[in-house]
Each structure stands twice: as structure tokens, then as C-alpha cells.
């Protein structure tokens, strides 16, 4: 055995088990996006995925979205950078993503689904990988393309989005052990459930705001009368 191989083996042995596990689950995304049916099944049922890797993909997705708005050539996308609120943009993506996962999990009992919230979130996060690996390099490439080559940019953007949607469909089918028809019905129900959850959240925060306003006005009235 050569000295280089000995050093590599020693480095692998010294590597922390959690770090090794994180790297393995991170790299497993490559298998998932090209072999989605087996990939998503093993991701959840064979414990080939991890929440740490899922969180990483969600963060990279959010970063890619904002970087795309900020640095894509003005020929392909127009965004008012001066008034761009990064946290607002992130919230507008992350909140619906979590609500859709929650809605799907809440309705899984109704449709005899087998997935837990953790499994659904993890599978949906892995389904975002094509968006990252295609659109992140496109930020740089867009600044090298001419307006006449816009069709190439548009096609690649469409491919990344369609690929993600297809992976999300397969992910729900494998996580819950559904057939294609049942998966489609559950997705429609999930979207409807997400709208209901969003409506309830808006009502809750509206009532909460009114309650704070009432108590604040009452406090001011008491202070005014005692002064």
C-alpha cells in the first residue's frame, strides 16, 4: 500500500461519523434526481437521506433564488435591486413550502399515507436539487449570452422547474406508497389544504393585531385619565 493510500485511509478513519453521514446523504441527491423512484423510496425507508442534507438543500434553494434576482443579466430578468428585501423574498418561498409540507402531512391520514412530516419535508427538499444545480450556474451564464440566445436560457429554466415538479410528484408517491392517480388527488387536496391553513393564519394574525390594538388603546386611555 502506498503512502498516499495510507494517509487517505487514516483520514477516512479519523473523520467524524456524523460528518461522514452528512456527506453521504448530501451526495445521495445525485442518485435521487436521476433514479427518483428507487431514490426516494430508499431515501425514506432505507434511511439514505438526512434532515441536515435537506436543510442544506432548502438553504441553497433560497440563496439561488435571491442570487438569481440580483445577478442574472437584465436581458432575462428584471428586479428592482434597490428595494429588494431578501428576508421577505425568502419568507415568500419558505413559508409556502413548509405550509404545503404541513398540509400534505395533515391530509396523509385521510388518504392512508405512510409518510411522516419529517419524511415529506426531506423528500421535498431533495426534489429542489435540479433547481440549484441548473439555475445557479445560469446566473453566470446569463451574463455571457446575447439576447438572441435567450431561448437557451428559457429552456434551461423550464427544464429545472419541470424536473423539480416531477421529482416532487414521485417523492410523494414513494413516501406515502401511493399510485399515480392517488398521488395526483392528494396533491390537489394538499394545495386546497394549504390555502385553508394560510387563510386561518391570516385570520389569526388579524385577530391578534386587533387584540393588541385594543389593549394598547385601553392602556393609553388609562394613562391619560390617571395623568
State the helix count: 9
The mean pLDDT is 86
Q: What structural class do the secondary elements suggest?
A: mainly alpha
Task: Please give the alpha-carbon distance between the first and last residues.
Answer: 88 Å
Series of secondary-structure elements, N-terminal to C-terminal: HHHHHHHHH
User: What proportion of the residues is helical, as a percent range?
Assistant: over 70%
Strand content: under 5%
How would you explain this protein's 3D organization?
It is a single chain. The chain is mostly helical and 227 residues long. The protein contains 9 helices and no strands. The chain has helices at 3-14, 17-34, 36-45, 51-71, 86-108, 117-126, 129-142, 150-176, 180-226. α5 (86-108) crosses α9 (180-226) and α8 (150-176) crosses α9. The protein is globular, with a radius of gyration of 23 Å. The N and C termini lie far apart (88 Å). The mean pLDDT is 86.
Amino acid at each position: 500500500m502506498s503512502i498516499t493510500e495510507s494517509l487517505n485511509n487514516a483520514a477516512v478513519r479519523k473523520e467524524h461519523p456524523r460528518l461522514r453521514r452528512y456527506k453521504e446523504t448530501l451526495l445521495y441527491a445525485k442518485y435521487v434526481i436521476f433514479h427518483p423512484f428507487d431514490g426516494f423510496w430508499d431515501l425514506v425507508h432505507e434511511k439514505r437521506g438526512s434532515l441536515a442534507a435537506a436543510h442544506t438543500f432548502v438553504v441553497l434553494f433560497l440563496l439561488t433564488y435571491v442570487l438569481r434576482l440580483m445577478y442574472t443579466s437584465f436581458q432575462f430578468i428584471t428586479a428592482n435591486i434597490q428595494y429588494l428585501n431578501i428576508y421577505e423574498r425568502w419568507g415568500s418561498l419558505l413559508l409556502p413550502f413548509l405550509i404545503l409540507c404541513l398540509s400534505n402531512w395533515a391530509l396523509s391520514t385521510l388518504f392512508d399515507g405512510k409518510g411522516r412530516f419529517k419524511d415529506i419535508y426531506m423528500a421535498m427538499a431533495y426534489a429542489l436539487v435540479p433547481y440549484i444545480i441548473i439555475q445557479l450556474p445560469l446566473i453566470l451564464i446569463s451574463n455571457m449570452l446575447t439576447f438572441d440566445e435567450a431561448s437557451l436560457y428559457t429552456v434551461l429554466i423550464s427544464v429545472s422547474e419541470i424536473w423539480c415538479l416531477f421529482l416532487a410528484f414521485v417523492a410523494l408517491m414513494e413516501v406515502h406508497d401511493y399510485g399515480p392517480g392517488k398521488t395526483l388527488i392528494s396533491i390537489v387536496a394538499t394545495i386546497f389544504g394549504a390555502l385553508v391553513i394560510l387563510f386561518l393564519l391570516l385570520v389569526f394574525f388579524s385577530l391578534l393585531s386587533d387584540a393588541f390594538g385594543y389593549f394598547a388603546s385601553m392602556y393609553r386611555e388609562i394613562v391619560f385619565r390617571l395623568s
